[in-house]
Each structure stands twice: as C-alpha cells, then as structure tokens.
Amino acid sequence: MAPRANWKGYLKLAELACTVSLYTAVSTSERIVFHTINRETGHRVRRQFIDEETGKPVEAADQVKGYETGKGEYVVLEPKEIASALPESDKTLALDVFVECDTIDDLYFDRPYYLAPSDAISEKAFAVICEGMREKKVAGLARTVLFRRVRTLLLRPYRAGMIATALNFDYEIRSPRGAFADIPDRKIKGEMLDLARHIIETKRGKFDPSTFEDRYEAALAELVRAKLEGKPIEARKPEPASNVVDLMEALRRSAARAGSAGKTQARSSGTKGSGKPRKPSPKPSRRVSQRAAATRRKAG
User: Fold this and answer.
1) Which of 66, 98, 111, 189 qualifies as a FRET site for 285, CA 20 to 30 Å off?
2) Where are the beta strands (DSSP E) in the chain?
3) pLDDT for 278-290, tens place per residue?
4) What is the C-alpha separation between 9 and 298, in angstroms, rounded?
5) What is the tens place of the pLDDT at every residue in 33-60?
6) Cα(123)–Cα(18) distance, rounded to whole angstroms?
7) pLDDT band at residue 192 under the 50/70/90 scheme
8) pLDDT category, 276, cuts 50, 70, 90?
C-alpha cells in the first residue's frame, strides 16, 4: 500500500509538466514515546493554558497569537488576519534553475522528501525530466508553498524518483564566526600529523547507515522490557577516564591500537569486516505497555 502523500501538485520544466506527489522521507514514528502519567492514579495528564496573571484556564476560543513589542505589551493578531498573510499556492514546482549537486552547502539542508509521479499518465514526463538531470549531473531548484510556507526545494534524481530537500533560508543560518572565534590558527606538522593520518587511514571505510544503531532507543527498549518483566534496573557504570594527558602519547597509543586491531580482524575473517550490523533490541509493543500500566494501577 502506497504511503499517504504530504503534498500533491505539478512538476514543470519549460512547457513539460506532470503531476507529482511528495512523501515524507524521514519519520520518527518508530521511536519509543512516553506519556506523562499521574503517579497516584495511573491516569494520563493533559496540558492546559493558564493566564499567567489571573491563574485561570484559558479556553481555546479565547486564545490568540501575539507579537511582543515591549515587556507585557503585544500586538494581537486574529486567526483571520494571520491567514490573510499566508502565500497563495499554485501547487507547482517550476524548475527554473539547475546547479551542480555539490555546490550547495549541506548546512542549508533542512528536511528530505521523496518526489514521485502521481499517476501512470505522468510517469513518462517525470522520467524524461529525471533522466535529463541525471545525465547532466545537476540538481534543480524550485519553489512552492509547503505547509503554509514558501519553501525552496532542491530536487535530485534518486533511483526511480527524486529526493526533494527543503532548504533553510539564508537568514536562518547562524554565522560560524561566534563558534570559531576563539580557535587559534595552528599549523600541525611532523610526527603528530603523520600519526593522525595513519589513524584515519586505518579507519577508512564506506558509509552504511544500517550499521549505526540508535543506542538511546535500544536502551529505552531494554529499560521498558526490564520493568515489564519485573527485573531490577541497574545503573549504567561510567566509563573509566583516560589517564593520558600528553597529546603525542595519546596519538601514539591510538595508532598502535588501530594497527593491532586491523591485524587481528584480518586474521580472524580474512576481510576488513563482516559488514553485518548488530540488530537493535525490538521495541515493546503498545499493547504490552498498556497491559503493564493496567497491572500497575491494580497493584496500586
């Protein structure tokens, strides 16, 4: 079953157009979600907006947006007034500019989406645009209204479709001057640089996202499972601190360790690695969690 599209419209290159759909490429739905619970009753609690002066609850109908102009002073904007400022959308991704794929700093990358033709009639036109970009090794820039904001999207061919990456605006990117202002200009050379190069070379590999585990999510899953099974919760022991304070000595030890690790791995497997990622611990099901909550309430 095809996923639900976040946006539908038209992809246009000069006089060539086709209907397209935009799908979320990144999802957080698989993450473990916690609810805030009343410890005494076991019931979920809900948030409520409170007037900070009177302390009384404010109903949704009485809540409006306000821009602070001074301490305690606001310009109040009604929902209709805010709606009037929203840009009109023609639901069109017009490819007007093409750039080399590596000319845009990934600092500007915000969120990726999948872009695909919406129907069989549009598949051929979509393929023509996609293959033309692939042949020229370029990415296209297009603008559209996405989630009530005008967004610039970087479109790149990807497998049978495209990746549409929403780009940050220039004013949203903070200058690096503040973060890098106190870093002195150092010239590293000699044995120290040679050791660093050696360590990096021994750790050279290829990016495989399946080998990276979200250890926090795995730890949460283990914690929930232990609570469900009534096992004691053991505090994690802190890692021992390194006693090496000399930078050159640290580099020498690291280089020796990297070299010996590579030889051991080569003898044991005859290759650089199996490439098989360790599977994360399975997430406890919502039904099991609900049963556990009910059991706790009865016990209380």
Assistant:
1) 111
2) 7-13, 16-24, 65-70, 73-77, 92-94, 97-100, 109-117, 138-146, 149-158, 161-167
3) 444 444 545 444 5
4) 52
5) 999 999 999 999 999 999 999 999 999 9
6) 8
7) confident
8) very low
pLDDT computed for residue 277 by the predictor: 42
> Could you tell me if 87 and 138 are in contact, meaning their C-beta atoms sit under 8 angstroms apart?
no
- At residue 240, the 3 state secondary structure works out as coil
CA dihedral (64, 69, 75, 79) in degrees, to 10, reads -40
Interatomic CA distance for residues 70 and 51, integer angstroms = 18
CA distances from 13 to 130, 141, 142 (A): 11, 11, 10
Both tokens of residue 119? 């129907």
Tell me the sheet residues that pair with 74.
68
Of 206, 170, 198, which is closest to residue 261 (Cα–Cα)?
A: 198
The pLDDT, as a whole number, for residue 288 is 43
- Check residues 221 and 125 and name the one with the higher pLDDT: 125
| CA–CA dist 259, 164 (Å, integer) | 42
Distance (Å, rounded) from C-alpha 44 to C-alpha 35? 7
- Three-class secondary structure of residue 153 per DSSP: strand
Q: b/e string for 153-184 if b means 16 or more Cβ within 10 A?
A: bbbbbeeebbbbbbbeeeeeeeeeeeeeeeee
The pTM for the full model equals 0.73
Query: DSSP secondary structure string, 57-108?
Result: B--GGG--EEEEEETTEEEEE-HHHHHHHSPP---EEE--EEEETTSS-GGG
Residue 190: which region, alpha, beta or left (left: phi > 0; alpha: psi -120 to 50)? left
At 205, list the tokens: 């590999």
